[in-house]
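S1.2 Input.
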Amino acid sequence: MILSIIIGLSIWFVVPILLDGHIKKKNNKKALKMLCKIIGAVIICWTVINHTISIL
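S1.3 Output.
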């Protein structure tokens, strides 16, 4: 569970920072940041829901 949360947070925060210099257009940068936020949030939510269900 902890590993999945760390992966989700790293996708949410670190990946946009690392890929920021490789993308030139401003709209594409915004789209990449939004995509990373969505993917990171989905991973974190999925992990929390899966852990909650396994406890019950």
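S1.4 Remarks. Helices lie at 2-19, 26-55.
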